[in-house]
Hints:
The protein is of the alpha+beta class. It has two domains: 16-135, Sandwich (Jelly Rolls); 152-247, Winged helix-like DNA-binding domain superfamily/Winged helix DNA-binding domain (Arc Repressor Mutant, subunit A). It has helices spanning 16-26, 116-125, 127-151, 156-172, 185-192, 196-208, 225-230, and strands spanning 39-43, 48-50, 58-64, 67-72, 78-84, 89-90, 101-104, 109-115, 178-180, 212-214, 219-222, 244-247. A four-stranded antiparallel beta sheet has the order 1-8-3-6. Strands 2-7-4-5 form a four-stranded antiparallel beta sheet. Helix 2 crosses helix 3 (127-151) and helix 5 (185-192) packs across helix 6 (196-208).
Amino acid sequence: MKSAIRKSKSTAPINLAAYRCQVMASQPHPLRCLDAIAVPTTYRRGQEVCGECRPAEHWYCVIAGAARRCALRADGRRQIVGLLLPGDFFGFTASNEYEFTVEAIVEGTVIAGYPRRRAELLVDSSPELARELRQVAFEVIARLQAQLLTLGRITAIEKVGSFLLDIARRSARGREDSVALPVSRYDIADYLAVSVETVSRSLTDLKQRGVIKFSGTRTLKIVDPEALEEGDSEGHLHRPSNTVHFSAGPRRLAS
């Protein structure tokens, strides 16, 4: 009786360093002139990138995935003070210590680290690089201003709507594409300083008014961005418009 022997296919080990560099080269991001000194690193979901009150030895840029910037309140509760998407720089500080903690919120998030002292020397010697860095700093300020406007909304439903629009603009980069929404409702609640129940009620309310539409459990479509933009508390705006899609990727939004 003949027996067939099936040879198993051998799989070469993944070169993580080469993979990270490949991801970095394929993803658009600012300050490419600093790529020569960049150290791309892959992070697990929830893994710390830099910690509050620790030495500020690096600048960082999200290449793939997403991260959250957090602060710990006096009562021990966490407050998310920033959501970082691909292309976003962080780690800038006027002191020698980081003012916030940054954690990855997507499994396999790739973040490039730039040694601060070497980067500063390169910027000092290159007017072109200095101009690009100034533009990056302006974009950081613009994100903070947009966040203040979101938090300054009066009602919870306006805050959630403003949040969705902000993430859509930043993720789509001006295109009508499906984009990852890597944050859970718990993270959204921490970011907006409301309860997770409030976030869930607001999303349900927007759905019932026809402003947004859930396509399954992982996809969210903004049907009427003008209603969200204008803070239509009565939900009367139903003008035809282009749509922006949100895809939560491989994970489900926490309820």
